[in-house]
Design a protein that fits this description.
Number of helices: 3
Number of strands: 2
Structural class: alpha+beta
Distance between the termini: 56 Å
Shape: elongated
Radius of gyration: 17 Å
Number of domains: 1
Helix content: 40-55%
């Protein structure tokens, strides 16, 4: 890994730790997205703060996707919404 790439990975890891989280994985990619970073962040507000800070810096952009754990999906599945499709 190049020195520049190592610096970016280390910086993001330190930022996540400072916010009470951790980097689970970091991947560089080809195509429209240059990197994928999977982090464990304490809460949605902290994740939003990171996304806003990255966007406001102009140094890059950030798309935040909240991943659900299997237990979260099981809990959601147990909620009755009463939804019926139109028609």
């Amino acid at each position: 890994m190049s020195e520049g790439a190592e610096h970016r990975v280390a910086f993001i890891g330190k930022m996540a730790e400072t916010l009470g989280g951790s980097v689970e994985s970091f991947h560089f990619a080809f195509g429209g997205t240059d990197a994928y970073v999977i982090c464990e962040i304490p809460d949605d507000n902290t994740a939003a703060a990171v996304a806003m800070a990255v966007g406001a810096s102009g140094a890059g952009s950030c798309e935040t996707v909240k991943l659900l754990k299997p237990a979260d999906v099981d809990a959601a599945r147990a909620i009755s919404t009463g939804y019926k499709p139109p028609g």
